[in-house]
Write a structure and sequence with these properties.
Layout (H helix, E strand, L loop, with lengths): L8 E4 L9 H15 L4 E6 L12 E4 L2 E6 L6 H5 L3 H8 L1 H14 L5 E5 H15 L2 E5 L11 H10 L4 E4 L2 H10 L6 E3 L21 E6 L8 H10 L3 E6 L5 H5 L6 E5 L7 H4 L4 E4 L9 H8 L4 E4 L4 H4 L5 E4 L3 H13 L1 H18 L6 H4 L3
């Protein structure tokens, strides 16, 4: 049902399609959902920063969605500077804030609410909200390893406490923010969602000869890429399909293992072909992950999940559709072999996936966001 509203929403984010990532996919779902609900949407973002060799438009309009992409430098520079918060801030925040500020000078009357994304977006959103007197809702997408006494924690709480509302993806994330000093009354929970119609049983060209384990991720060490390689060496009769791009691409491509099928970057709309023909999905994260979108998409495709039992992951899936383990090579090896050798259990988990998707990953999750606009 459409909302009878002229509320204009400013989506402020350094990363947006055609940059590839879980947050980017969520934001595409969000702006499309807002469009369907009748909201005018104005996205301000950068050109693709971590996805090379993709076409992009500086100005794009789709129905009520208006996208402004600002050309910015740095092929994979983000991966190098993200470990240095101050440099990361200087790289992502000032220019996006400045460009959006000038746009707002002439268009602020179109906007009622700013929805920023991530810490850098929140800083820019606070500045814009102050100058133009707009409501500011910020969405978080990650968990952090920093302690509550760290400078990062203090700066984050300072910034988030100056927003009107903070949307956290999980209880784990909410508790971390409260521990850092963010006012609990400002925090509300939200979840990603999928369109189940996009996930079906279309067949890909992957050979059906072996039990297949699928890994889809940004290819960095903390996502567990080295665990995948070690598993492939220990399980030569199992095929490991790796999809993604990032700093670990070169390392993975250098592995001379016949049971590794490294496909590199695949467009999001084509991923369904690979989800639907794998046997299980694996996510061996080595850090506190946020709401891992690929896990949700795997379940929506009827694909049981084997993942690390850390971060937000235990809040995304339960034992009816997943096996969660401590992130070690031996634990993942045992879980893979368990599902490979117990087809009854594997099929039970596959059969549980549709109802689980309908219950937890449905489009109504957008209401958890728009109620704060």
């Amino acid at each position: 049902m459409k909302i009878n509203s002229k509320k204009g929403i400013l989506i402020l984010t350094p990363f947006f399609s055609p940059n590839i990532g879980g947050v980017e996919t969520h934001l595409t779902d969000l702006v499309n959902g807002l469009d369907n609900l009748g909201y005018p949407v104005y996205v301000h973002t950068y050109s693709p920063l971590t996805t090379a060799n993709v076409e992009w438009k500086s100005r794009e309009k789709i129905n009520n969605i208006n996208i402004y992409r600002y050309r910015w430098f740095g092929k994979n520079l983000f991966h190098k500077v993200e470990k240095y918060p101050f440099i990361d801030f200087l790289y992502l925040t000032p220019y996006l804030c400045l460009r959006t500020f000038f746009w707002m000078l002439f268009n602020h009357q179109k906007i009622t609410t700013i929805n920023s994304h991530g810490f850098n977006g929140a800083v820019a959103g606070n500045i814009l909200a102050f100058f133009f007197h707009k409501k500011h809702v910020t969405s978080t997408h990650a968990l952090y390893d920093n302690s509550s006494t760290s400078l990062t924690a203090k700066l984050t709480s300072f910034v988030l406490n100056r927003t009107d509302m903070v949307l956290a993806q999980s209880v784990h994330s909410k508790n971390q923010l409260i521990n850092w000093g963010v006012n609990s009354k400002k925090i509300s929970l939200y979840r990603y969602w999928v369109d189940p119609k996009k996930f079906n049983n279309k067949k890909s060209n992957i050979s059906p000869s072996k039990f297949k384990v699928l890994f889809v991720s940004r290819l960095i060490i903390k996502k567990g890429t080295r665990i995948i390689i070690k598993l492939a060496k220990k399980l030569p009769n199992i095929e490991f399909v790796i999809i993604g791009s990032g700093p670990e691409s070169k390392y993975i491509s250098q592995q001379k293992l016949s049971n590794i099928n490294f496909l590199g970057k695949i467009d999001n709309h084509k991923l369904i072909d690979y989800y639907s023909t794998a046997d299980v999905f694996i996510q061996p994260a080595l850090y506190q992950e946020g709401f891992t979108r690929t896990i949700m998409e795997a379940v929506a495709s009827g694909l049981p999940v084997i993942a690390s039992d850390i971060g937000t992951i235990p809040e995304i899936v339960d034992e009816s559709v997943s096996i969660l383990v401590k992130p070690t090579v031996e634990n993942f090896k045992s879980a893979i072999l368990k599902l490979k050798n117990d087809r009854i259990l594997l099929n039970q988990m596959k059969n549980n996936c549709p109802s689980y998707t309908k219950k937890y990953f449905n489009i109504n999750n957008i209401k958890l966001i728009v109620r704060h606009y």
